[in-house]
Backbone:
């Protein structure tokens, strides 16, 4: 069944949007009262999760850039919050190319104003929905070379896609377009680490008109089927790191992993 996908070109500040709620949780200013209303009802741990998620993205992107990956496709980028992915990777590789995608035109308005590429690199923005991957890939091919490794970044995105919308199939099909040596970087909210908190967060988002699909560890592991999951494996956000210093040890309801496409 084809999911009901709202037109990406329509501004809507009457309904909360996941990217803007995320921005509010991070202390950003690019959100609206309807987004703040959702955020204020979430438990304090939601702010911790947003911070941990962002820090994981920073570490994973920097490590991949240090390994020579210079092309990134970031789907579900959210409201720009410095430092952004391109600022992380272009600091290491100034010629890196980054393509951002989000389905909220307000997000893209801010992206076009704030996500300025390093002069030697490239940054592009696609207004599209992950549930319409063909349109994303068509635009991305104009910037990225799909004959060379690409890092596909799905940060805190897939728990907004339900099983009925074929979340695992979407990721599998995106991966199928990438050449060997590419990587999947994924973070995902857990339903089994702190079940009561997960139910509370899901209920509050639902009141704001946003459906969530938090998943168990085995369900999140399925996103990496057929890939080479890199050390330290599928772990919580503060546990994923490659270089010292280690992040502070703290509880987290976010699963994270990085895998190589063989």
Residues:
């Amino acid at each position: 069944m084809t999911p009901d996908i709202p037109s990406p070109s329509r501004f809507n500040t009457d309904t909360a949007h996941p990217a803007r709620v995320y921005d509010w949780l991070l202390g950003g200013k690019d959100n609206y009262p309807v987004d703040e209303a959702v955020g204020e009802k979430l438990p304090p741990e939601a702010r911790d999760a947003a911070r941990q998620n962002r820090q994981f993205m920073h570490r994973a992107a920097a490590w991949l850039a240090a390994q020579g990956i210079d092309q990134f496709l970031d789907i579900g980028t959210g409201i720009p919050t410095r430092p952004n992915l391109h600022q992380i990777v272009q600091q290491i590789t100034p010629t890196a190319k980054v393509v951002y995608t989000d389905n909220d035109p307000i997000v893209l308005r801010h992206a076009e104003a704030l996500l300025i590429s390093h002069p030697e690199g490239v940054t592009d923005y696609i207004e599209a929905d992950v549930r319409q991957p063909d349109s994303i890939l068509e635009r991305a091919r104009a910037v990225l070379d799909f004959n060379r490794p690409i890092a596909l970044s799905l940060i805190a995105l897939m728990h907004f896609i339900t099983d009925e919308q074929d979340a695992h199939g979407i990721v599998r099909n995106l991966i199928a377009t990438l050449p060997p040596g590419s990587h999947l970087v994924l973070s995902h909210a857990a339903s089994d680490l702190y079940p009561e908190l997960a139910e509370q967060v899901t209920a509050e988002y639902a009141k704001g008109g946003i459906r969530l699909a938090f998943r168990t560890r085995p369900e999140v592991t399925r996103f990496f089927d057929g890939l080479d999951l890199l050390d330290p494996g599928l772990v919580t956000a503060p546990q994923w790191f490659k270089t010292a210093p280690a992040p502070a040890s703290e509880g987290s309801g976010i699963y994270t992993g990085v895998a190589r496409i063989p």
Observations:
- Confidence is low (pLDDT under 50) at residues 1-9.
- Residues 45-66 form the longest helix (22 residues).
